[in-house]
Design brief:
- The chain is an alpha+beta fold and about 650 residues long.
- Strand 4 and strand 5 form a beta hairpin.
- It is elongated and about 130 Å long.
Length: about 650
């Protein structure tokens, strides 16, 4: 007996996304089987884990398996598991809702994808692989009963924006997905998914490593009757018999020597554990023996997930104990800045009923985490040395995340500094490592110079870089928001101090220039003192500059001060920041500075002189991308001075 059937609609964005998926995404339609097997395997893992945690759970765990059935006459393909199952609410939440977060974003990216391969990668990023079934089916039916519950739920949809859901009785524990297949179409790569040889081929290709048996009833020729047995007349022996066949080898991939595993097998396993569609950029296999025994199989994806910087992003790798699945997304095994790494760790000595709370305190888990982190970082370093194309891909996808480690992981700071790539004035096309920068340093140079800002274009026009360009001194150009934060926490690289071109006193003069600089300081001393008093509300001091060659002035911070951009970031995040004053530096060789000096000496119109000082400070602010505190007052002062200049002219 079934309850009333309820018809529900997908949200508008979900309908558009589903339509895109059905009509324009997958080039390899066979992949639907991988998705269904992967989901079934997850359900079995979860049931076994729940049975460890809840000894009173009313669930049968005696023969956990996946079963495939196909009917060539009815044109149906079914896959069943006797795993954890789902409640009605879970069905609506997990199956009836497309792309719970980021729906608009995935729809936009799918439209922008240039080809089907790019589209397939996006499917893995957004975790909506179940809907690949609509590429091969006109209708999909899902029947599921949660372990320990009595009522089951049937969900059904034709992929046209609506689905039905109802409560039913008498369903077995677990989940069955039935596809009502589209006609075979060789031109559209729609194979006969009711063909036993085809099913065998796809399971072997995509899911051979699944640890649960994948079974299917097949018809085989009957064995010949022994020759010594008498056959009575009319007693015809059957020519065919039905038998249950296990389609997969069930060999855990991570327990096999790497030399025995193909790249394609690793790629398929990566897609299984990460629910992705791309190939892994790099595979890392580890085996540790001794005090702590474990095996690890890790993957660096070739494409970053869309939610890498979202709070909802699930980080961490899978945890197994003695080949028994314990949990997904075990954050304790991987630092946050390596949250893009996928894969699993199989530990030998942990308890099967280990909890997240226990993991946070477990000495073995902390040791494994340290070793995994060092291995991933050393792998990235090897890529930078030996496979620059792969490294460049990795850095383009995960560079911003890896920089977070410079703030979070003091123990591995040196390893991270060795693998980061940064833009610099040395080349507009190729990023540089810190080691490469040091190799190019001039003989007299003792510091690594850097500039932070919103863009390379802005920094290249900055007055702070003028003297460095003139003297051919390379400057790192840091434009990621995270750069503002980590650069202030790193004091040096290989003994070479890191120095901002916009902070502290930068001395680019040779010994021969120092005497001339001392003379200029004395010559302009009174003007500098007077300007400091005029601009006392805005600056802490006015001094001569050795950074400028073309501009009249620039603003710099104290050696240990926060940059204006970092102050804004803190304020935007709700952290109160006191107003700070910086230093105005004047170019002693600029005509405007000379004019100010002459006007100050003459002390004719003090108002005009004060306005000139204020405008010079405001112009320096604008040159670095800042804004005067009172734009209207700045504009009025500029207009007054221009009016007076034009009138006098």
């Amino acid at each position: 007996m079934s309850a009333q059937v309820e018809e529900l609609e997908f949200a508008a964005e979900a309908r558009q996304l589903l339509d895109l998926m059905i009509h324009s995404i997958y080039s390899n339609k066979d992949s639907f089987l991988r998705e269904l097997v992967s989901n079934a395997s997850d359900a079995l893992d979860k049931l076994r884990m729940e049975s460890y945690r809840d000894k009173d759970l009313d669930a049968d765990t005696s023969d956990l398996h996946i079963e495939i059935a196909a009917d060539s006459e009815a044109r149906t393909f079914s896959i069943s598991d006797n795993g954890i199952g789902m409640t009605r609410d879970e069905v609506i939440d997990l199956i009836g809702t497309l792309a719970k977060s980021g729906t608009a974003e995935v729809r936009k990216k799918l439209k922008e994808a240039k080809d089907s391969a790019a589209s397939e990668e996006l499917i893995g990023q957004f975790g909506i692989g179940f809907y690949s079934t609509f590429m091969v089916a006109d209708k999909v039916t899902l029947l599921t009963r949660k372990a320990g519950k009595t009522h089951a739920t049937r969900w059904e949809s034709e992929g046209a924006g609506k689905y039905t859901i109802e409560e039913v009785e008498g369903a077995p524990q677990g989940t069955t997905v039935t596809l009502h297949l589209k006609p075979v179409d060789s031109e559209d790569d729609l194979h006969d998914y009711t063909s036993v040889p085809k099913i065998r081929e796809l399971v072997k290709k995509y899911s051979d490593f699944i640890s649960w048996p994948i079974r299917m009833e097949v018809t085989k020729p009957a064995p010949p009757k022994p020759a010594d047995e008498d056959t009575e007349e009319g007693d015809d022996a059957p020519t065919e018999v039905t038998a249950t066949e296990t389609l997969n080898s069930q060999k855990a991939l991570w327990t096999r020597p790497r030399s025995e595993v193909t790249d394609e097998e690793y790629a398929e396993f990566y897609r299984h554990v990460s629910h992705a569609w791309d190939d892994p950029l790099e595979t890392i296999a580890m085996k540790a023996e001794g005090t702590f025994e474990y095996q690890a199989l890790l993957f660096i994806p070739s494409t970053a997930p869309f939610d890498l910087f979202m709070r909802e992003h699930k980080a961490g790798v899978q945890l197994y104990v003695k080949r028994v699945f314990i949990m997904d997304d075990c954050e304790e095994l991987m630092p946050e800045y390596l949250r893009f790494v996928k894969g699993l760790v199989d530990a030998a000595d942990l308890s099967l009923n280990v909890s997240r709370e226990i993991l946070q305190q477990d000495r073995q888990i902390k040791a494994i985490r340290r070793r995994l982190t060092k291995k991933v970082l050393s792998t990235i370093k090897d890529l930078r040395t030996n496979d620059r194309e792969k490294y460049d891909t990795l850095w383009s996808q995960y560079g911003r995340v890896l920089k977070e480690g410079l703030l979070q992981d003091v123990d591995n700071q040196d390893a991270l500094l060795a693998i980061i790539s940064l833009s610099s004035t040395h080349s507009a096309d190729t990023a540089t490592s810190l080691a490469e920068y040091v190799e190019r340093m001039k003989d007299t140079q003792t510091q690594i110079f850097y500039a932070t800002g919103d863009s390379r274009e802005q920094l290249e026009k900055s007055p702070h870089l003028e003297a460095f360009k003139a003297k051919g001194i390379e400057v790192l150009l840091l434009t990621d928001p995270i750069d503002e934060m980590w650069i202030g926490s790193i004091t040096d690289f290989e003994g070479k101090p890191l120095q901002s071109v916009a902070k502290g006193e930068v001395d680019l003069s040779g010994e021969a220039d120092k005497e001339e600089d001392d003379k200029k300081d004395e010559e302009f001393s009174d003007l500098l003192t007077w300007m400091t008093g005029v601009l006392v509300d805005d600056v802490s001091a006015v001094r001569l500059s050795s950074r400028l060659t073309d501009s009249a002035a620039c603003i710099v911070g104290e050696a240990q001060s926060l940059s204006p951009a970092l102050e804004r970031m803190y304020r935007d995040s709700g952290i109160p920041m006191p107003d700070s004053k910086r230093i105005l530096e004047l170019n002693p060789d600029h005509a405007l500075t000379a004019g100010l000096q002459k006007a100050f000496a003459d002390r004719g119109d003090d108002t005009a002189l004060r306005q000139s000082a204020e405008l010079l400070y405001g112009a320096a602010l604008l040159a670095e991308g800042g804004t005067p505190k009172q734009p209207a007052a700045f504009s009025k002062t500029l207009a007054d001075l221009l009016t007076r200049t034009v009138s006098e002219g």
